[in-house]
Specification:
Elements lengths: L8 H34 L1 E7 L14 E7 L11 H4 L36 E7 L11 E8 L5 E15 L24 E7 L1 H13 L1 E6 L4
Antiparallel strand pairs: 1-2, 3-6, 4-5, 4-7, 5-6
């Protein structure tokens, strides 16, 4: 006859209490984890927003900014948390009133007025033009043509559909900054204004060659 394991009431009660304690600890740990993750996502953080519209290329001043408190879960990646981080930077695009300011919307610190507007991988190139002032504005697209003289005069298109970054008056901007070629006087001859256009590095070389050996003309491309 096989023997049976007989537990005393006291041992059974102790086992029951121990199992209950383990279960209670596990439940509390799970609840704390869930509560902690929820608190982290809903805890308010400070973000910098535009108090009023700011035009592309303008320097953002403290008067253009305000702080708002929003749940962390709704904060955009790269958002500034203090106004001192954003003030003094140049807007890379038009900013709307109430828009959250992020690293990708403002230029890096200490960037020049032209270099701060250059997208990664592009250059700014100055092209003199006899077009009347007011004909073009930043954001328009143009074709640049070169007319070569000599034994076989001809005209060819150097670049097509490049974006106008800036429209300068006759004085232009002396010198160059941040890889931007702004020597408009090197083209020779009077001009009513100078266009600073965005080009790829290979287009910059083509334009420099054409400017040295040909007369440049600007044709306005249709709006996109």
């Amino acid at each position: 006859m096989r023997g049976r394991l007989i537990r005393s009431p006291r041992a059974s009660a102790a086992i029951s209490v121990a199992c209950g304690l383990v279960a209670m600890i596990a439940v509390r740990a799970y609840a704390a984890t869930v509560a902690g993750s929820g608190a982290d996502g809903t805890r308010d953080v400070s973000v910098v927003v535009a108090m009023r519209p700011v035009a592309r290329g303008a320097v953002v001043s403290p008067a253009d900014l305000r702080l708002e408190r929003i749940p962390r879960a709704y904060a955009q990646p790269g958002a500034f948390s203090s106004m001192s981080q954003a003030a003094g930077r140049v807007a890379l695009a038009d900013l709307a009133s109430g828009e959250t300011l992020t690293q990708t919307r403002l230029a890096r610190v200490r960037a020049g007025p032209v270099a701060s507007l250059l997208p990664e991988g592009l250059r700014a190139f100055a092209v003199p033009t006899a077009l009347p002032q007011g004909t073009l504005r930043a954001g328009d697209r143009v074709d640049i043509l070169a007319t070569y003289s000599g034994s076989q005069p001809h005209t060819e298109t150097v670049v097509e559909g490049v974006e106008v970054l800036l429209v300068l008056g006759p004085g232009g901007i002396p010198g160059s900054q941040g890889g931007a070629s702004l020597d408009a006087a090197a083209a020779g001859g009077p001009q009513s204004q100078t266009l600073v256009v965005l080009v790829a590095p290979e287009q910059e070389h083509q334009l420099a060659y054409a400017r040295a050996f040909a007369d440049l003309e600007v044709a306005i491309a249709p709006a996109r």
